[in-house]
Amino acid sequence: MDTERRSDAPPYHGESAHALWHVSDHDGIPSFEPRVSATSIRKEPLVWAIDTRHLPLFWFPRDCPRGTFWADSTTTTADVDVFLSGQRALRVQAIEKTWLGRVRDGRVHAYRMPEVTFEPDPLVGGYWTSRVAVKPLESVAIDDLLTRHAEAGIELRIVPTIWPLWDRVTASTLAFSGIRLRNAGPRSISDEPGRERTRY
After folding, report:
1. How far does Cα 139 stand from its chain's mean position?
2. Which pLDDT does position 195 carry in this prediction?
3. Measured CA distances, 129 to 31, 40, 161 (Å)
């Protein structure tokens, strides 16, 4: 999973108050039990949650590969111009065009979690963990995902294949997070070897 602390993403339009969320494709989950995440370097059973600021990272069907990026204090003006259309406060979330229909028709469920047993993950900014089972306080359906991006002022960038963009982003001074990139389309022969990673 992630190996260093992420710089916080910029706020988005309509962002609600701080809360912790667990996002799933499934509705009606009564309780979340600690488990070992296949993509985490922490090999202990945990319940994972994301805070409101970073919730848009999960405005996608679970298996959708996406690369997300934004500027932080170390990002150069040149990279802001190239990747963020000159807008330092812009957030971009990129998906492959083969996933557009599934994102357009998708619905996920955000479970608001009680914070009492959660602590900030020491490695991954925006993520929180609990070592004990958690019963959610409520479940909120999140649909119309394309409109949600537009209303939040988060650019949803559609690309034929994510790898050329992702390789440039991860070599830049941007903050970035790649999720489910193992589900992305295959690289072409001309693509450089890449990996799913996050810079904080």
Report:
1. 19
2. 47
3. 15, 12, 33
State both tokens at 103.
């994102």
The reported pTM is 0.89
| Residue spans per domain, the chain | 20-184
In tens, the pLDDT along 133-161 reads 999 999 999 999 999 999 999 999 999 99
Rounded-to-10 torsion of CA 111, 117, 120, 126 = 10
